[in-house]
């Protein structure tokens, strides 16, 4: 059988909604981050989807695609993998590809017709497990004593886990030969700060020092008490304003979760000045650009308050990412968590690669801020760095 014929045979059965489940394995390259991909059908809002579960060394990531988008997804799978093992309603199919895509295609009749389960399995394999009691999550009121996640705290639990996944991904960028310094700006109740400490120090045994900083004195006192009670001796909380935090000791990773408005920019600016290796920042409400924004060509959009607000937030995050890439960071805007959990769902991830910025990137940035009449706070904070790429 030819390669193209094999794909058409699989797609035909999948389009007829006969797939029960499948596993795609045998990466073509040993270095492939994804080790295998599981496929299962599921119904989302009445529309048939195929869920692709990407299995990495330690984490799982999911993508749900419609039937229209599935052929491209399958092509991508076969670019990286050589084996397909599928259960269909009436048959089992085994596909083995040679390095040059010679196809071995074997189909075996099912002894008994298989049933398709289209239910969305909401239980997810989190880095912090849903049933294990974690002392810090119990103290922060996310779990009960027996490790059950409280219903009203489930969204928070998901957010914490998602953030820990990003931290896990960033590990390769952190120093290995000395104490890693981490700062959580606007730490608030510090769910994230504790989770980060637990994951990196307690579970991974890394040498690190974590600081949470916030304006609120009582909250900080409470957090210090919890850290003390749990014996987290390299975790400290300080009362302070991000803007005035001028500790010269360089920080390796700066994180912020929902630091309001320009508090996020203050944190990003501090991170750049330290040359922090990793920045993970989920911004919050955005007012600065909303006030400045003037672009007559966009009035059809901007006349609507709601659209103006959302546009300002998206443009601000784009400006932040562009500034970071102009000052030596590889910056990406990623989905932090699904919209149903929180609408504040963009995460700025930046790794300090020191890659020089191109003139074109600088020109694109200048044109964009000029078009919007924007005077970004972050730009003002980093003028000397940005002047180097004029
Ligand atoms: C929405 S809360 C988020 C708290 C926490 N990161 C979380 O996600 O649970 C924002 C926090 O940022 C703090 N904050 C805002 N502006 C700040 C500043 N200039 N300096 C320090 N903390 C600030 C607030 O006090 C508040 O606790």
Automatic annotation (TrEMBL):
Keywords: Methyltransferase, Transferase. The keyword Membrane does not apply. Gene3D superfamilies: Vaccinia Virus protein VP39. Residues 155-292 form the Methyltransferase domain. It comes from the Bacteria. This is SAM-dependent methyltransferase. The lineage of its organism: Bacteria, Bacillati, Bacillota, Bacilli, Bacillales. It holds the Pfam family Methyltransf_32. GO terms for molecular function: methyltransferase activity. One of its GO terms (biological process) is methylation. GO terms for cellular component: cytoplasm.
């Amino acid at each position: 059988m030819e390669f193209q014929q094999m794909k058409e045979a699989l797609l035909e059965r999948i389009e007829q909604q006969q797939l029960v489940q499948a596993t795609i394995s045998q990466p073509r390259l040993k270095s492939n981050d994804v080790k295998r991909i599981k496929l299962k059908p599921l119904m989302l809002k009445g529309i048939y989807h195929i869920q692709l579960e990407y299995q990495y060394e330690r984490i799982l990531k999911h993508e749900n695609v419609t039937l229209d988008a599935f052929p491209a997804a399958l092509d991508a799978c076969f670019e990286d993998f050589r084996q397909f093992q599928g259960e269909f309603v009436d048959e089992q199919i085994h596909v083995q590809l040679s390095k040059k895509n010679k196809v071995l295609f074997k189909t075996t009749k099912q002894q008994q017709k298989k049933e398709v389960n289209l239910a969305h399995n909401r239980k997810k394999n989190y880095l912090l497990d849903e049933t294990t009691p974690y002392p810090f999550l119990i103290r922060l009121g996310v779990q009960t004593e027996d490790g059950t996640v409280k219903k009203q705290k489930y969204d928070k639990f998901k957010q914490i886990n998602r953030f820990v996944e990003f931290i896990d991904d960033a590990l390769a960028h952190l120093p290995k030969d000395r104490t890693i310094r981490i700062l959580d700006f606007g730490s608030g109740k510090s769910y994230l700060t504790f989770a980060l400490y637990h994951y990196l120090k307690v579970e991974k045994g890394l040498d690190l020092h974590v600081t949470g900083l916030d304006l609120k004195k009582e909250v900080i006192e409470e957090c210090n008490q919890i850290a003390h009670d749990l014996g987290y001796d390299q975790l400290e909380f300080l009362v302070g304003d991000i803007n005035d935090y001028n500790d010269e000791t360089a920080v390796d990773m700066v994180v912020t979760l929902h630091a309001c408005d320009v508090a996020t920019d203050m944190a990003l600016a501090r991170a750049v000045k330290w040359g922090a290796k990793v920045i993970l920042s989920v911004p919050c409400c955005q007012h600065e650009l909303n006030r400045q924004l003037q672009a007559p060509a966009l009035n059809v959009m901007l006349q609507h308050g709601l659209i103006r607000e959302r546009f300002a937030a998206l443009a601000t995050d784009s400006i932040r990412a562009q500034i970071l890439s102009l000052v030596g960071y590889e910056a990406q805007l990623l989905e932090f968590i699904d919209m149903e959990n929180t609408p504040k769902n963009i995460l700025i991830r930046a790794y300090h690669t020191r890659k020089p910025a191109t003139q074109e990137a600088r020109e694109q940035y200048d044109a964009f801020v000029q078009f919007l009449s924007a005077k970004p706070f972050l730009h003002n904070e980093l003028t000397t760095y940005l002047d180097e790429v004029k």
